[in-house]
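Quick one: structure for this chain?
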Amino acid sequence: MKGSDGPGSDLATAITIRNVVLAVAGAAVLVLGSAYSGPFAEAFQAHSGNVAVSFALYFAALNATARYQRPRLLAASLTLLAVELFEVTDGFGVMANTYDPIDFVANAAGVGLAVIVDLGTTRVLRRRHEPPPRDRGKAST
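Got it. Here's what it folds into:
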């Protein structure tokens, strides 16, 4: 049914597309972050990857958790668990990772930013996809 937010609806499709676009945007920041040379470049380059990966993974997880009762809570929890375990296990023992306690905060900031962006953009998408108001209470002349 058009205007509903069930699977296959215009809103659900718009949210899925938004999630993919924002996940790719987060990945792009990860890849391009090393090119930043502005103010606080050293701190940005040290922690922007953590924020960007957490942000991207949240939106990827959101698509995977959409069918569950609390998709945001589940996506945020799973994302935070994954990125914090990555830090604790030094890259899961597979990837190179430099331990830095500030990375835990950067990971949480990335998830927090993603939740804020999710809430704000979902609100905009809902307004764009809601059915037009009916002419209730108007007298015909």
